[in-house]
Write a structure and sequence with these properties.
3 helices, 2 domains, two-stranded antiparallel ribbon, mainly alpha
Length: 137
């Protein structure tokens, strides 16, 4: 399929006869093959295919280069397993008022551990979506 570009030259005098010049995309000598393919594309999907682009809902395969805008290495690994465990408050005899401080730190540590676990779960979900190339809109 070639796209015809028409230009009508009306002439610079009233007595001249107008002429029409037709140029196809294949006649554009300084256009690359990719550029010509974009000009010939029937729709946006065909144009994206011509330039090897994805759509908003697709992600290029991860590679060791920056081709496609993704440089993730050959594989996407899951996040490391959690090794920390929750602690319990102490019921020991209070010495110089330190028991309350200790138990407060244990409570904050447990909250931080819960938040970290939630972030790890979210990260694992994002990595799984990257692997499957199914990032939701």
């Amino acid at each position: 399929m070639a796209i015809d570009i028409e230009h009508t030259d009306k002439g610079d005098k009233v007595t001249e006869t107008p002429t029409t010049v037709k140029t196809s995309t294949d006649q554009i000598t300084d256009a690359s093959a990719v550029g010509k393919s974009v000009l010939k594309a029937a729709d946006a999907a065909a144009a994206r295919t011509a330039i090897s682009a994805g759509t908003l809902s697709t992600v290029p395969d991860p590679t060791n280069t920056v081709v496609g805008g993704v440089k993730l290495g050959g594989a996407i690994a899951a996040p490391a397993a959690m090794t920390a465990t929750a602690d319990t408050a102490s019921a020991a005899t209070d010495v110089a008022g330190l028991l309350a401080d200790h138990n407060d730190l244990v409570t904050k540590y447990n909250s931080l551990l819960t938040d970290t676990t939630a972030l790890r779960t979210l990260l694992a979900s994002v990595l799984a979506q990257l692997k499957a190339k199914t990032i939701p809109a």
